[in-house]
Design goal:
Keywords: Carbohydrate metabolism, Nucleotidyltransferase, Transferase. There is one protein chain. 24% of the residues lie in helices and 22% in strands. It is α+β, with helices and mostly antiparallel strands and 359 residues long. The protein has one domain: 2-Layer Sandwich (HIT family, subunit A). Strand 2 and strand 3 form a beta hairpin. Helix 2 packs across helix 5. It starts with a strand and ends in a 12-residue tail after the last helix.
Length: 359
């Protein structure tokens, strides 16, 4: 991307600024701007506890995708017609986006020794219909509709010219950053490869170059064989506590078949993936009394590069502690329970039967 001297920050949109030392990109979300005084008192999460005040209670005219319990997909409300009243998942544009579509892809702007690009991309909200029922309390069939929505939006946004990476995230609970209690995920398509993903790709490529094998496949084979850290397993997916867990009760869910791209998950694998996700979140919910957590999907970028060495997966990070000076100063995270003990505890959690409830 060509560079140009531009000492003034982009004010109308968000922008990505590159750390001159690490090379990492950070987002300055001017489109979601807050005043300095807004940070003095921490905002209390858990807004909209009453469903009558919840902004996600009704189907939006701006819906990009609607999925009903009958698993019918509608791109627009006018296509859905009367059937839209049975919606279970809707995907809508974020009203306060960190990234916004534009006609031209961003070019690098230079301010002295610094570099930045405009925050071009897409920011969507994936809303589940039940107001007071988290993913942990949904049926496998319902969670299958959710992961289907993830896949459909991935497929739609992957070909976009300015997009290099598509990220799905889900925040649950006060400590996770969730500002609305109504269950919802977010999909963010951005014009750069995120630092954490870049490091994951580099590690995967390094292992492949040295051993001509997928590092994640090697992890899956070892964990499935030893069972020390396995929390849940079915024919298609495995969930385990990573050997070097960054946080207490961290969980990763992998497909057993090697695939770099999440959006290429076969139709027959959607329900097994949903089962693995629902089960792991359920044992966290009942075992740790509904902790806050974040989960996100790591997948190959969409920039046209060669990533056959990579293996997509979903990571769940419960908010069981707060970073202190050591973590911030070194980047080394401290987990206060051995992954083997965390997995053993979660395997022992007795789950109550799920009732089939209408949204």
């Amino acid at each position: 991307m060509p560079g140009s001297e531009n000492p003034k920050p982009i004010s109308k949109y968000s922008e990505l600024r590159q750390d001159i030392v690490s090379g990492d990109w950070v987002v300055i979300a001017t489109g979601r701007a807050r005043r300095p005084n807004d940070f003095i008192v921490a905002a209390k999460a858990g807004k909209n506890k009453d469903d009558k005040d919840c902004p996600f209670e009704k189907l939006e005219d701006s819906a990009l995708l609607i999925i009903t319990r009958g698993n019918e997909h509608f791109a627009d409300l006018w296509q859905a017609g009367a059937k839209a009243k049975d919606w279970f998942i809707e995907v809508i544009p974020n009203k306060f986006p960190a990234f916004t579509p534009r006609q031209l892809c961003p070019s690098v702007a230079v301010e002295g020794v610094y570099r930045q690009i405009g925050g071009v991309g897409f920011h969507e909200v994936i809303v589940m219909r039940p107001h007071d029922r988290s993913i942990a309390l949904m049926s496998v069939e319902e969670v299958t509709l959710l992961v289907t929505a993830y896949r459909e939006r991935f497929k739609t946004l992957k070909p976009e010219q300015c997009v290099q990476y598509v990220s799905v995230i889900h925040n649950h609970g006060p400590e996770s950053g969730a500002s609305i209690v109504h269950p919802h995920s977010q999909l963010i398509a951005i014009p750069v490869i995120p630092p954490d993903v870049f490091k994951s790709l580099a590690g995967s490529l390094r292992y492949f170059t040295e051993r001509q094998a997928c590092v994640h496949c090697a992890m899956i084979e070892y964990e499935a064989r030893t069972k020390l850290r396995v929390i849940f397993e079915n024919e298609k997916f495995i969930a385990f506590a990573p050997y070097a867990s960054r946080a207490a009760f961290e969980i990763r869910i992998f497909p057993k078949s090697h695939r770099a791209d999440f959006e290429n998950i076969p139709e027959e694998d959607l329900k097994p993936f949903a089962q693995a996700l629902q089960r792991t979140l359920a044992v966290l919910y009942h075992g740790l009394k509904n902790p806050s957590y974040n989960f996100f999907i790591h997948t190959a970028p969409t920039d046209g590069g060669r990533y056959a060495h990579y293996h997509w997966h979903l990571e769940i990070l419960p908010k069981t502690s707060i970073w202190g000076g050591f973590e911030f100063g070194t980047g080394i995270e401290i987990s206060t329970i051995a992954p083997e003990d965390a997995a053993a505890f979660l395997r022992s959690v007795k789950l109550p039967p799920l009732r089939q409830r209408e949204p």
